[in-house]
Each structure stands twice: as structure tokens, then as C-alpha cells.
Amino acid sequence: MPEMTTTTTTTLASSSDGGEISREANLFGKYEVGKLVGCGAFAKVYHARNVRTGQSVAIKAVSKQKIVKGGLTAHVKREIAIMRQLGHPHIIKLYEVLATKTKIYFVMEFAKGGELFAKVSRGRFSEDLSRRYFQQLVSAVGYCHSRGVFHRDLKPENLLLDENWDLKISDFGLSAVQQQIRPDGLLHTLCGTPAYVAPEILAKKGYDGVKVDVWSCGVVLFVLNAGYLPFNDSNLMVMYRKIYKGEFRCPKWMSPDLNRFLHRLLDTNPITRITVDEILSDPWFKKGYKEIKFHHEDLDFKDFGYNNNKKFLNAFDIISFSSGFGLSSLLSDYTDISVSGERFLSAEKPEKIIERVEEVAKKEDDRVVVTKKDLGVKLEGQDGNFIVVAEIYRLTEQLVVVEIKISKRESGPSHEFWKDKVRPELCHLIYRSEATIVETSE
């Protein structure tokens, strides 16, 4: 993604190509859409500016029709679910997902520095710079693995750079989650980019998502310092044979420690291949490494594109919430992998709704911890066995949308607490009409 200016186009194509953003997008009053900065078979990416804050963002526009025709509905659902639950300094942030009847828009962090690929294609990096980017990559990949997410397509083209030239992982379209692991404990979908794919994927006998990401990280590190691929050939089958046998040679300028480290990363045997924990303790890796510390809770008050300090939801917000428009016809269960919930309309004041939720907690004595923030309240079991979050958004002068988030998709303590304790106290607050928005992901 090349570096962009913030020039705003006044007329954007309104063609039948569903990946294009039409003039309609500017009517929502939320983003000024600028130049096209990247495109693929199913999506186009634009630079844009948040009208309210002035913040630069990237907007990926995807055609619903193309998604359905290409059989990619599950991929898009999963990408949204994965990106919404990830919060790491070296992973591109997904701010919100918006939709019309024909398109889905991913509003994401804008990486001003463009693709890492473009930078390394101009010349190989020094060992110190290669190490710096590899440290950032491993920190983010290890974080993904800790949350049961496996990227499966790590390569310099999917690694972006921000204005400070720090690395950001992008494109989770081929990612897998723990729920996709078969009873044998392995993943079986064949995917990835040929030059970066691990040998066990080529064997077609199943693979560990953690191990294949480590392999791809090794290929990325080699490319950064060597300036070329470790496994490459114009004949794809010859290249696959080299990968399967692990046939590569480090250039003479690589230090002995880096040479040794790369052979551990590019070990064709996934069982003996270096692990993320072992990477973190390796002498070559540890040089100058500072642990990246950040705060991210599994379920807390989150900005899913709706600002609690904002008085009203706008048209795009309503589309995203509504079961009659926007996402739900295609992405009816796009919620976080580890989070489910419900939404409903209410004519009651937000303060009154929060008060009713707090009353439930009071009945549980000291077994429930209550945390309030803006127009939201979180109930958490003292022993951490459940979390229920209620957030409220103003829809009109008379109506609000109440969004309930419950930890864990499967039945468990959080669902039982919500169904048995909280929901009965709120059911009479639901606004009843033909237009009532009620969504559930149970």
C-alpha cells in the first residue's frame, strides 16, 4: 500500500463492480473517501478520512454478490470475527464494519508506510533491522496463537508499516481458528502463498496452525536479510520439492547465529521446529528485544464503531445493527469468536436500564463485580466464571439500542446468568413494534 496524500475525490465510480465505493458512501457523512490504494479479485481498498476526528483510515470495500458467487461467505464472516477480537500494537485494527444492501465496508487502521514488501524489494535489510521487524512479527503472531487464531498467509505483502515504520499484520482472510481443528488435532485446508507455505501443508495430511505460521515467519526473516526467497523456482513443482526437502542456503553475509536460527525456523519436521517460546529465548532474537506490553481484555467495553459519547447513531450505525438491512442477511453471526450476545430496542432512559442491570448484581451479594463506563455496565463473577456487558446507544430522541455481550459462544455460566438473572429484569423494557430490532447470536 503506497504512501498516500489525503486528497478527497469528489466523484467515485458507481459501477457494477461491487468492490468500488460509489457516491453513496459519502452521503453517510462519516468518511471522506480518497484515492484507491489497493485492489484484489474481491475487494478494493481506499484511503479515507474520518470527518469527525480527521483520522486517516483504510476502507476495504467488498461486493456481497462476489462473496456469495465466490463461495467466500464463511471467509468474510471469519475475517470479521477474528479482526474484531484482536487488539495488538502490531496488528491492523478493525474500527468498524459497515454495510449497504450490496457492499460490506471494513474500516481499518491506515498504514501510511505501505507494504513491507515494497520496502525490502528496494534492497535487503541489515541484520539489526531484520531482527527488529521479526521481533514485532513474532510478538503479534504469538498473541494471535494465544487467542486461537492462525494467520496462515504471513508474507511481506501482508505486513504493513505505520507512520513510525513499525510493522502491522494485515489480511486475516485465510486465517483459521480453533473451531476449525478436526478431531485429529490438525487443520486440513490447503491455503497460503506457494513460496511461504510449510512442507506439512504440501503433504496434505493435516498440519498445526502454530507450526505453519512459525515456518512462514522464518521465510519472511530470510527475505528481509537476504533480499530474496529461500525457496524459489520458475517451476512450481520444483519449488515445492525444495520446500518439502528444506533445500536452502544462507548467503555469506548472514551471521552464524542468524544462520543457525533460520535453520531452526525452517525445519521441515514440525515436531522439532522451533516454538514461539523457544524463539523468545533464542540469543539472536533476544538482542535488543523489549517485551511489548499492552492491555486487552477478552470482553470489556469495546468501540465496535459506535461511540458511547455520541448522542445518536447515524445511518450507517442503524444499517449495521439492523436485521433488515446491512450485514445480517450475509453475516448473521459475525460476532466475536469468544463472544455472543443480543440487541434490542428500548424506550427507557439509558440510566434506568443500567440501574436495572445493577440491581441484578446487588441481589447476588458480593459474587458479582460491577464496572460502569459511560453508557455501559459490566457484570463479572468474582471467580471470573462469567462476564456480561450491556452497552447503550441513542437511536432517536425516544429510542435506544441495548447491546448485550456475553463471554463464550457455547452454553455456560455467562449464558445462564444472562438468561436466568439479567434478561428477566430487562424483558419488560423492550420496545414492541413491527420495526423492533432484535438480534441474537445464541
Describe the structure in your own words.
This protein has 442 residues and is an alpha+beta fold. It has three domains: 23-109, Phosphorylase Kinase, domain 1; 124-286, Orthogonal Bundle (Transferase(Phosphotransferase), domain 1), CATH 1.10.510.10; 338-440, TATA-Binding Protein, CATH 3.30.310. 30% of the residues lie in helices and 20% in strands. It contains 13 helices and 16 strands. Strands 12-13-14-15-11-16 form a six-stranded antiparallel sheet. A hairpin with a 5-residue loop joins β13 (376-381) and β14 (387-394). α12 crosses α13. It starts with 30 loop residues before the first strand and ends with a strand. The model is unreliable at 1-18, 297-311, 319-339 and 434-442 (pLDDT under 50). Residues 31-285 form the Protein kinase domain. It catalyses: L-threonyl-[protein] + ATP = O-phospho-L-threonyl-[protein] + ADP + H(+); L-seryl-[protein] + ATP = O-phospho-L-seryl-[protein] + ADP + H(+). It is an enzyme of class 2 (transferase).
